[in-house]
Structures are given as structure tokens and as C-alpha cells.
């Protein structure tokens, strides 16, 4: 089954928000192989975090990742209007498969 | 810059096979794993499966009996075949680089490059 994410998170411009991604020992908790993707409507997902805490080249420093136990988190600092999108976590699993989270809609108020 | 482009029939009849191709430009298909991911209308992402750097394939257990993924090095592309489709298979299908675990390095490749996606409708 999918990793668990909140359906929606909102914040005002300039604020910080955090999105959680909860799995199990067999996926999120078992590896440092969690990544996060941003998807605007009608577009392909874009990677923003990989290996729990790393940002691909060109991704804003306002995006940061962390993990504690079976829960990974994505924090967006200094929220901007362009951050309004869907966010998905993904993790490798002990079954050599990949699980995505159900997705979180971020709304900038 | 690596670019991926999915192509295939936009419309497939129930019970038939869906064939999709992902053409890769700006980089070699060798030395990387390649994945297929889909997104039903209004829903989240679902990993379908991937082929790793050694040519081994791994699939979502819910689709395993109906899916094949293969690499065509002569065309620098990756293909997906999903048979016995139903309405539940209607989605945007993405190909992406990554998804595989390299046992020699202990590293899992995240999905770093994506195609724009191709819409698939299942209807008679």
C-alpha cells in the first residue's frame, strides 16, 4: 500500500510548512532512499529531494528533507506562490519495489 | 540534458495490450535504470516497474502478471507492455530515469528525469 501523506497542507507566503510521509521498517524506515517530487497540474513530476536530505542541482534551498524512524518529512521554508502544487514522497522497499505516497496538495493562502 | 518522450496509442480497447515506448535523447540508456509510472485521472502516482542496469526487471505486485518492461539499446529506448487492460488502467503514463538499486554501489537511483507523460484511455 502507498506511503501515508496528509491530503493537504496550507500556509501563508513567507511561512514554513512541513509534509510528512509515513511508511514502515520495510521502506522509509529501512533505507535512506526517500525522495520527494513536486508536480504542478498537467506537468510531469520534478524531483526536489533525494536520499532523504539532498537537493538536485537547481532546486531552491527553501526545500529541505529529513527522516525520523518510519517517517520522512519535507519542509518548505519561505513559502511562495509558485510552491502551490502537489508533493509526493517515494521510497525503495525491501521487496525491491518502489512505493509512492498518496500525495499532498500544498495551498498558498 | 537528458530528455524522455513517451509514445503509444492514446486509446486501447478493454482486454487488449497497451504498448508504450519511451525514447531517450541527450544521453545513453546504458548504465541507468528506467521506470514506468502512471497517474490515473485525479489520483496520485503509481510505480509500475523498472529495468535495472543489469537488465533485471521488477514490478508492482498488483500489476506483475500483466506487465513487461524491456530496453532497446539500438533505439535508445524503453518499452512497456501492459496486457488485458481494463478501465482501471486509464491514466497518464510516465517514463523516468531511475528507480533501480545498484547492488555494487549500494545506491538507489531516484527518478531524476521524467518524460512529459502520455494519456491512455481504455474504451471500446
Structure overview:
The complex is a heterodimer of chains A (109) and B (124). Chain A contains no helices and 9 strands. By secondary structure, chain A is mostly beta strands. In chain A, the strands form 2 sheets. In chain A, strands 1, 3, 4, 7, 8 and 9 form a 6-stranded mixed sheet that branches. Chain A has a 3-stranded antiparallel sheet with strand order 2-6-5, with no helix packed on it. Chain A is globular and about 40 Å long. Chain B is mainly β. Chain B contains no helices and 13 strands. Chain B is globular, with a radius of gyration of 14 Å. Classes of the chains: A mainly beta (109), B mainly beta (124). The A-B interface holds A 2, 31, 33, 35, 37, 39, 43-47, 50-51, 56, 86, 88, 90, 92, 95-103 and B 35, 37, 44-47, 50, 58-61, 94, 99, 101, 108, 110-112, 114-117.
Distance between the termini of chain B: 39 Å
Major β-sheet profile of chain A: 6 strands, mixed
- Give the amount of beta strand of chain A, in percent: 35-45%
Helix and strand element order of chain A: EEEEEEEEE
Query: What is the chains' assembly state?
Result: heterodimer
Structural class of chain A: mainly beta
Low-confidence stretches of chain B: none
Number of strands of chain A: 9
Q: Work out the radius of gyration of chain A.
A: 13 Å
Task: Give a quick set of tags describing it.
heterodimer; A: 109 residues; mainly beta; six-stranded mixed sheet; three-stranded antiparallel sheet; 44% strand; B: 124 residues; globular
